[in-house]
Amino acid sequence: MIDRSGMAEFLRRRRESLQPEDVGLPRGSRRRTIGLRREEVAVLCHISTDYYTRLEQERGPRPSEQMIASIAQGLHLSLDERDHLFRLAGHTPPLRGADSEHISPGLLRILDRLHDTPAEIVTELGETLRQTPLAVALTGDLTTYSGPARSLGYRWFTDPAARQLYAPEDHAFLTRMFASQLRGVATMRGPASRAAHYAGLLIARSEEFRQAWNNHEVGIRPKEAKRFVHPEVGLLELTCQTLLDPHQSHGLLVYTAIPGSESYERLQLLSVIGSPRGQGAQTA
């Protein structure tokens, strides 16, 4: 059963404890509000201001599990705080572990500060959970995919458009790497895991994947320098640094270019041009 008063008070306290800079928002020169405004929280949670306001006022329908998950992420809640909010709303908290998509507050705080850098938070299966605006400009909005196609490794073998942003001479290595990564995760998580399920789907759909899978290669790591072929600015060679959250099996990938290089100049241009046409628009 929902605890309306408890949930309303918890949401108010969490909102008031956050500052705009904590969540990547500008403070403004005439700010008097303690913590975040309700409309700011609504934007972060991808819900209407009216809906969120009703929750703080102990009104409105009982929020769904999907809505609570979105609010927990928008308010940068820890796992314990997320689970508490689920219980206040009368829901059973989601399972923790490898399949969890709740991003830790610490990882979100870092991402929120990378305004001028391509960066994304991904799962161990290569599913993009969050991107900075410049990352969207680089690869398109990768959060729009659904189902197995959320995984870049899955799309690599099933969607020819997934390869268009990568230099052709790198394709053979990436094929081996994606198969190797999926095998490693499937072995680690077991035959009932999503990784094993994706492998089964790819074995049935892709001859290229079957050949790479049957080689039983493991431990093939991404190269530090990644090359992207953007439809507007051309080839960009970017260094990728990864920060891992071992508790959630998430990685923060940050892409940078060597200052003064041609890729650096093209990255600056990309921040003005915007996202590549047609990328990240498909779902499956």
TrEMBL record:
Domain HTH cro/C1-type: start-end pairs: 35-82
InterPro entries on file: Cro/C1-type_HTH, Lambda_DNA-bd_dom_sf, MLTR_LBD
SMART domains in alphabetical order: HTH_XRE (SM00530)
Entry superkingdom: Bacteria
Gene3D superfamilies: 3.30.450.180, lambda repressor-like DNA-binding domains
A Pfam family assignment: MLTR_LBD
Protein name: Helix-turn-helix domain-containing protein
Classification of source organism: Bacteria, Bacillati, Actinomycetota, Actinomycetes, Kitasatosporales
